[in-house]
Amino acid sequence: MTRVTAAITAVGGYVPETVLTNQDLEKMVDTTDEWITTRTGIKERHILREPGKATSDMAVRAILPMLEKYNIDPLDIDVIICGTITGDFIFPATANLIGDKIGAKNAWGFDLAGACSGFLYSLETGCRFIESGRYKKVLVCGLDKMSTIIDYTDRNTCIIFGDGGGCVLLEPNTEGYGMLDSSLHMDGSGKEFLFQKAGGSMNPPTLETVTNREHFVYQEGKTVFKFAVTNMADVSYQMMERNNLTSDDVNWLLAHQANLRIIDATAERMNLDKEKVLVNIERYGNTTAGTLPLLMFDFEKKFKKGDNIILSTFGGGFTWGSMLLRWAYDPV
User: Fold this and answer.
1) Active-site residue flag, 158
2) 286 in active site
3) Which residue in 36, 44, 40, 37 sits closest to 264, CA to CA?
4) Portion of the chain with pLDDT greater than 90, in percent
5) Which of 96, 127, 173, 256 is catalytic?
6) Rg of the chain over CA atoms, in angstroms?
7) Which of 6, 7, 84, 266 could join 173 in a cystine, given CB atoms 3.0 to 4.6 angstroms apart?
């Protein structure tokens, strides 16, 4: 029997218009453009400041142009999966709201929270739905409005994160293209080093949690950096090893855009030339679940049918993983 794989057949992306530069941050916290650039590679990030707009609205602005470009009827979409930690509400799911806003009246869906690994986790899930044979069009989104949970008096976190993200459409493929392998992991003992202290059932919102500024991202940067460098690099190299790929066989590395030094360490572990490592962190910062689809959107015209692409990520809590894709179409 011919193997059915899940192939990406369309890509969309969006970032808000408002730009927050390193020079802007110099006026807000004790930092400098040189310090931020040297340690992270980030020069600016985009912030969603439109009143009444949330993660679902950014998703719609990524999805609708994609559907139009590829002549896709939203009524044909079967499933919507939204990777995010900044959903519009606790409930209903942001995927539910996206479906309503784009007119995907025949779809069902849900949100998936994997922090910075949210898109890769969602992509894995969407691929399995396609491989089951039951669904033909699965929309996978990865977006975050991180500005809503960032403390702009904390120089350790406010320099890193931005808003934005993107989406892909998955469809069945029988020609050997699409998702070929994946390796996903988590380690909850990392919770204390990168998490949001309040807002969940452990510490629901109270006057005290708000006063103590516990609804913002908390991070121990050095510990997170150490774990990320090791685990993201190792899992990406292992993806090459178990699929018998050399560095010559890998066309592109799409690594989570959290820190340029982590990206460089991953590429070095894989022995990849710099021109194969796609980077846009300088323009967007860390958009959490949004970084990988934004990379795909920005560099889609570079990809050729048959290219071997390795995705790699690391996120809070901790979560990490890698995926091997064989690209399914030529630039359009």
Assistant:
1) no
2) yes
3) 40
4) 93
5) 256
6) 19
7) 7
C-beta atoms surrounding 296 within 10 Å: 26
Token code pair at residue 63: 């999805």
The pLDDT assigned to 1 comes to 60
Encode pLDDT of 287-306 as tens digits: 999 999 999 999 999 999 99
Write down the residue that tokens 């006057």 correspond to. Answer: 207
Return the pLDDT at 92.
Answer: 97
| Catalytic residue, candidates 82, 116, 127, 158 | 116
CA gap 255, 55 in Å, rounded:
22
Topology of the domain comprising 180-289+302-326: Peroxisomal Thiolase; Chain A, domain 1 (3.40.47)
Distance (Å, whole) CA 255 – CA 227: 15
pLDDT at 98 > cutoff 80: yes
Q: With 70 as the cut, is the pLDDT of residue 131 above it? A: yes
pTM of model > 0.85: yes
Q: Which CATH superfamily is domain 5-176 in?
A: Thiolase/Chalcone synthase (3.40.47.10)
What is the C-alpha to C-alpha distance for residues 38 and 267, in angstroms, rounded to an integer? 18
pLDDT in tens, 10-31: 999 999 999 999 999 999 999 9
Tokens of residue 39, six digits: 């340690």
Share of the chain above pLDDT 70, in %: 100
What tokens does 139 get?
A: 């929309």
Please say whether the beta carbons of 227 and 314 come within 8 A: yes
Using left for φ > 0, alpha for ψ between -120 and 50, and beta otherwise, residue 293 falls in alpha
Q: Where do the domains of the chain lie?
A: 5-176, 180-289+302-326
| Residue 243 bears catalytic tag | no
The answer for 178, left when phi > 0, alpha when psi is -120 to 50, beta otherwise, is left
215 CB-side CA count, 13 A: 15
Residue 145 exposed, middle or buried by CB count within 10 Å (0-12, 13-18, 19+) = buried
Three-state secondary-structure class, residue 113? coil
